[in-house]
Write a structure and sequence with these properties.
single chain; mainly alpha; elongated; disordered N terminus
Amino acid sequence: MKAGFIKKFSRGAAPEIPSPTAVWFENEPMKDTDCAQCRKFHHQLGSIQEELELVENEARASQEVITMLHKQLTATQMEHSTNDVFLKCKTDQEKLLILSRKDKQLIQLEQLLQDMRDNRDNVREQLRSKEREVDQLNEQLSMFMEMVAAKDQIVMALTIKVNTSFV
């Protein structure tokens, strides 16, 4: 059996399910000594994986279209419902009341949208701050690693010097 194949299926305590599009022999290139049937299966596996990837992409695109259509349907149903209520109104006062309620809903939604934008901006700023902090820590880590390497060189040089003085 291929070493890559065995490696993929001999896992530790927490098994991880491989992706359907994973290349199972990715670490094992085809060799001239592989049998013809192995080469055939390897080629078929590659073809099937490409086909699977295409089907998965198509399914994702279809799901996006379905989601968009669902949103449009919901919006159309809400509009239709409002139009029905509006047309059933007998007086201008009732129509004004409906328009007033819709205006209040719009104001609330605009406020919610603004709050969400503010929250997003705060999260982005926190992310930038954390990224700067990580960069600083990486710089410190690099400096410490260089310092340890320099100290190791000094220790090695002194050890060699001590060993040569005893000889």
